[in-house]
């Protein structure tokens, strides 16, 4: 049985961990090693990781495809919510899990706008002539992929009556979430601390989602 209050507490703890980690990213071992001499925290660790993993256009393309797929999943769940809402029974017809999914999507948008427009922590390590000063922390593709695909996996058990099909779709969602993280790291367009911060934030947001979604049927 899911206990909403317990997951909310976990979420608050994870948000605190994320805030502390973000503070250290902005203040520890900060050096001008980014594009156009932009400053990056944990410079030694991030430079080592970037040199170890390198850059890969193929993995970048994979991450982009998964990003579009995640957005498509968002549209699908929005359609499900609209269908339930306008099915004739009104707002009470919308499943609690769909409301929780909608809340998750709103929070994703809020955090994306905050770190893209308000608090820019560092910039992407894009090499050569392609270098631009694009906000890098946390990785929005990673947070989007992890949160959307894992929340979708959770909801599939309710929405798909065929157990075999539901299991297959759930496994595919987990694989997509893992691949979203790996592809973004191996593409070389993010610092290692971007990925770490994204995973902490994703865990916090998923705790909010799980607490809001309540028990499975």
Explain what you see:
This protein has 217 residues and is mainly α. It has one domain (4-213). It contains seven helices and no strands. The chain has helices spanning 4-27, 43-53, 57-85, 96-118, 140-159, 163-187, 192-213. The longest helix is centred in the first third of the chain and has 29 residues, at 57-85. The protein is globular. The model has no long low-confidence stretch (mean pLDDT 89).
Short description:
The protein has helices spanning 4-27, 43-53, 57-85, 96-118, 140-159, 163-187, 192-213. It is mostly helical and 217 residues long. The longest helix has 29 residues, at 57-85.
Strand tally is: 0
Helix content bin: over 70%
Question: Could you name the ranges where pLDDT drops below 50 across 5 or more consecutive residues?
Answer: none
| Rg, nearest Å | 19 Å
- How many domains in all? 1
String of helices and strands = HHHHHHH
Class computed from helices, strands and strand pairing: mainly alpha
Shape assignment: globular
**What is the percentage of strand-forming residues?**
under 5%
What is the typical, i.e. mean, pLDDT? 89
Helix count from the secondary structure assignment: 7
Biggest beta-sheet profile: none
Distance between the termini: 10 Å
């Amino acid at each position: 049985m899911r206990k909403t209050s317990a997951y909310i507490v976990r979420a608050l703890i994870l948000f605190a961990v994320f805030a502390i980690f973000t503070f250290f990213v902005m203040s520890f071992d900060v050096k001008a090693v980014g594009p156009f001499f932009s400053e990056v925290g944990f410079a030694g660790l991030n430079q080592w990781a970037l040199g170890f993993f390198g850059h890969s256009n193929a993995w970048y393309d994979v991450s982009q495809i998964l990003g579009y797929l995640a957005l498509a999943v968002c549209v699908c769940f929005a359609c499900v919510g609209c269908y339930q809402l306008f099915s004739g029974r009104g707002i009470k017809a919308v499943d609690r899990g769909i409301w929780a999914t909608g809340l998750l999507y709103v929070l994703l948008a809020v955090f994306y706008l905050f770190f893209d427009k308000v608090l820019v922590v560092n910039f992407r390590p894009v090499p050569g002539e392609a270098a631009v000063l694009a906000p890098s922390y946390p990785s929005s593709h990673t947070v989007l992929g992890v949160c959307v695909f894992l929340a979708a996996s959770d909801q599939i058990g309710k929405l798909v009556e065929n157990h075999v099909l539901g299991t297959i779709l759930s496994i595919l969602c987990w694989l997509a979430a893992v691949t979203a993280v790996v592809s973004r790291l191996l593409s070389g367009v993010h610092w290692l601390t971007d990925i770490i911060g994204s995973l902490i934030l994703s865990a916090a947001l998923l705790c909010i989602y799980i607490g809001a979604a309540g028990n499975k049927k």
